[in-house]
Amino acid sequence: MSLKAFHIVFVVACVMLSLGFAYWAISEYRTTHDAALLVCGILSIVGAGGMLVYGKWFLHKLRGVSYL
Amino acid sequence: MSSGVLPYTVEPHPVWGLYSGKLGTWLFLASEVMLFGGLFSAYVLLRVGAPEGTWPTGEETEMDWKIGGFNTLMLIISSVTMVMAWASLKMNDFAKARTYLIITVILALAFVALKLSLEYYPHWHHGLKPSTNTFFGLYYLMTGLHAIHILGGVVVMLYFIGPGASLWKTNPEYYTNRIECTGLYWHFVDLVWIFLFPILYLMN
């Protein structure tokens, strides 16, 4: 597996972490009403979307590089 | 091979399709998976097996998700800069690759500095040591081992930014492969943190 393929695995893991963190932050916000948690939760969802866009851009940039 | 020159440092091996450095890196990372996998398993089993009410809760552990989250963000960005260094070398832009490597080193050192100053030092100062309870024993072991891996990666990157950079002039493809191997290691170290962050900071 090349760094290109491993980076895609990493991006997928980051997207899952971002969505998991968003779920945690919004759940915590419901009990604590801490606005920072809500902001971080929303930013995390936006970040997950950003990572997906980045992943697509990265694949396009390195389209000539092998996955092996 | 009889000449003493390491074979397949640039071109892939005809049987397994990888150059020697990449194969060696993946074998090393397989051993690392077993090392960290064992520690993660120990954490899960000790936590699940802990008697009711004995595992410290969020407030007792003093784990600040804001510091952990910021450190996570820095490591994610460092993986992006690491892969950009390799991509720049693929496009024959050594100056840009070097800049990306320097940014990666700065982010890595900032991660360790924040960990020491905002987490380890206050924890230790408040009497939260490895001997305090099982959680802190595992916390210091796992995050400490991870921090040592970060510093190991920094040493390798500093070598390729400094004295090791001369290889680019004599054999650019070999140098690019070495940066790819460093990038594989760096991604693994960052991936470990992506698992450490939720179990230590969010699931208490």
Order of helices and strands of chain A: HH
Largest sheet of chain A: none
Overall pLDDT confidence of chain B: 94
Q: Helix fraction of chain B? A: over 70%
Question: What's the alpha carbon Rg of chain B, rounded to whole Å?
Answer: 20 Å
Strand content of chain A: under 5%
Largest sheet of chain B: none
Please give the oligomerization state of what you see.
Answer: heterodimer
**Which structural class fits the helix and strand makeup of chain B?**
mainly alpha
Distance between the termini of chain B: 55 Å
Our count of helices of chain A gives: 2
* CA-CA gap between termini of chain A: 4 Å
* Name of the CATH superfamily of chain B: Cytochrome c oxidase, subunit III, four-helix bundle
- Report the radius of gyration of chain A as a whole number of Å: 15 Å
How many beta-strand segments of chain A?
0
* Low-pLDDT residue spans of chain A: none
Walkthrough of the structure:
- The complex is a heterodimer of chains A (68) and B (204).
- The longest helix of chain A has 30 residues, at 3-32.
- The model of chain A has no long low-confidence stretch (mean pLDDT 95).
- In chain A, 84% of the residues lie in helices and 0% in strands.
- Chain A is mainly α and 68 residues long.
- Chain A has one domain.
- Chain B has one domain: Cytochrome c oxidase, subunit III, four-helix bundle (Four Helix Bundle (Hemerythrin (Met), subunit A)), CATH 1.20.120.80.
- The radius of gyration of chain B is 20 Å and the shape is elongated.
- Chain B has 204 residues and is an all-alpha fold.
- Chain B is 76% helix and 0% strand.
- The chains are: A mainly alpha (68), B mainly alpha (204).
- At the A-B interface, helix 1 and helix 2 of A face helix 3 and helix 7 of B.
